[in-house]
Amino acid sequence: MTNSALKPTLDKDLEKVSQLQGATKNLSRTFVAPGLSFLFLLVAMGIASIYFSGTLGTGVVIASAGVGAYLALNIGANDVANNVGPAVGSQALSITGALLIAAIFESAGALIAGGDVVGTISKGIIDPATVSNSGVFVRVMLGALISSALWVNLATWIGAPVSTTHAVVGGVMGAGIAAAGYTSVNWATMGSIAASWVISPVLGGLIAAAFLFFIKTFIIYQKDKIAAARRWVPVLIAIMTGAFTAYLSVKGLKKVVSISLFQASVLGIVAFVTTWLLVRPLIRHQSEGLENRNQSLRKLFRIPLICSAALLSFAHGANDVANAIGPLAAIVHTISAGEVAAKVSIPLWVMTIGAFGISFGLLLFGPKLIRMVGQQITKLNPMRAYCVALSAAITVIVASGLGLPVSSTHIAVGAVFGVGFFREWYTQSSKRRMRYVQLETGRTTYSRRAETHRRPKLVRRSHFMTIVAAWVITVPAAAGLSALIFAGLTALSTGQ
């Protein structure tokens, strides 16, 4: 047999071996993230055993530390996507850059500004007097931890960004009802939380749409885009700086230093003026030589978007980590002190588990939800992503001033929806856009032909319905699951 006859067979065999090796490599990768996650859980439990070695209830604390670490991993996989997703979707950041920035600033926010005191009953959801027994209280908190972790994990798997704080609140409520009945729940507080399901995304969407309308009106659909950008981009960047200064003052640094809303507003105004004065010459220099087209405008928003992703991550770490690990801190305090307290200190080792767990969860599992928020709901460019990031900061400030509880997750995703739905309306209905297109293309019949076309769909309805459904059922689902887990833990403790 000649070599020419052997070659095709040899090539096919080598190709099969190569495909087998590739499949084996891909399969091994799928086990890396779960393996590293399991290792982190063991480390967290090991840390807990060191601090509670020989103490009564050590086993419960160790198990709770493992569950707390599991919840932190799921927060990183799900909740953090809202902070960096728009920057990734607009291609201002690569997925790798976004992961690194978010991991660093989430951890920094948790450890620097995360605070050392949290409410153990998750913002007054359950009356402490109804669960004064330390054993019952520990089971309520453990049930809340387990149920919220499982629910956020499920939401991540189906690709729905949900509020971790709502999951924890639902978990505490469900276990509290199972322990002490419906009268133990502060239903007024629960009503305000339920209202935030609507307030957060709607307010975020409206603010994002308003800024996108401003950008389209005063920059994009102007004859000289570069001149318009030189005039307005410094103002927009200054608004972002002022908003984030006030945002971090009110929310992100509240555990480090107490700042009133008025003081935060003054700081925001000072930051606005300072930024505007500094950015004007920079934008003028950066815009020199740029062509008079939309692609050129995108370059001017890249740096502000990167900064916004970092600041949103820092604020999220400062606010949400403590809420998520609050039940773990409550368990640690109750077992060590033998009493139920309305507020407890968060030990450094507990905060560290939360901070690093979020970072690891983001690095190992975060890309799925980051792509969902940034790319799959609607198409984002730097200007649209800027509107989303700015909306997140402003909405929290407005809600804080009105005393309304809001979810950063719902705000950010609602802003993405707002941008997409606004573009649908604007593309079809804006007379300014029609006049601009007619002027640029000479198509005088554009408006009449546009009216005969079906309204464009720029938001994926399937994702919209999935996410909204996940939002609506987060609290009741976490509550029901937590009640079942509490019953199981109670049966186990009674059996012993």
Key features of this structure:
about 500 residues, mainly alpha, two-stranded antiparallel sheet, elongated, transport, transmembrane helix
Could you describe the 3D structure shown?
The protein has 496 residues and is mostly helical. The protein has one domain. It has 18 helices and two strands. The protein has helices at residues 3-51, 58-78, 81-89, 95-113, 134-158, 164-180, 187-220, 225-252, 261-286, 294-299, 302-337, 348-365, 367-376, 382-402, 408-429, 431-441, 446-452, 461-495, and strands at residues 117-119, 343-345. A two-stranded antiparallel sheet has the order 1-2.
Let me know the largest β-sheet: 2 strands, antiparallel
Q: What would you call the structural class?
A: mainly alpha
Number of domains: 1
* Overall pLDDT metric: 83
- Order of strands, main sheet, comes to 1-2
* Computed CA radius of gyration, to the nearest angstrom: 26 Å
- Could you tell me the strand content as a percent range? under 5%
- How many extended strands? 2
Helices and strands, in N-to-C order? Answer: HHHHEHHHHHHHEHHHHHHH
Low-pLDDT regions: 23-28, 448-452
Give the overall shape.
elongated
What layout of secondary structure does this protein have?
Blueprint: H1 3-51, H2 58-78, H3 81-89, H4 95-113, E1 117-119, H5 134-158, H6 164-180, H7 187-220, H8 225-252, H9 261-286, H10 294-299, H11 302-337, E2 343-345, H12 348-365, H13 367-376, H14 382-402, H15 408-429, H16 431-441, H17 446-452, H18 461-495
Antiparallel strand pairs: 1-2
Helix pairs in contact: 1-2, 1-12, 2-5, 2-11, 2-12, 3-4, 3-11, 3-13, 3-14, 4-11, 4-12, 5-6, 5-11, 5-18, 6-18, 7-8, 7-14, 7-15, 8-9, 8-11, 8-14, 11-12, 11-14, 14-15
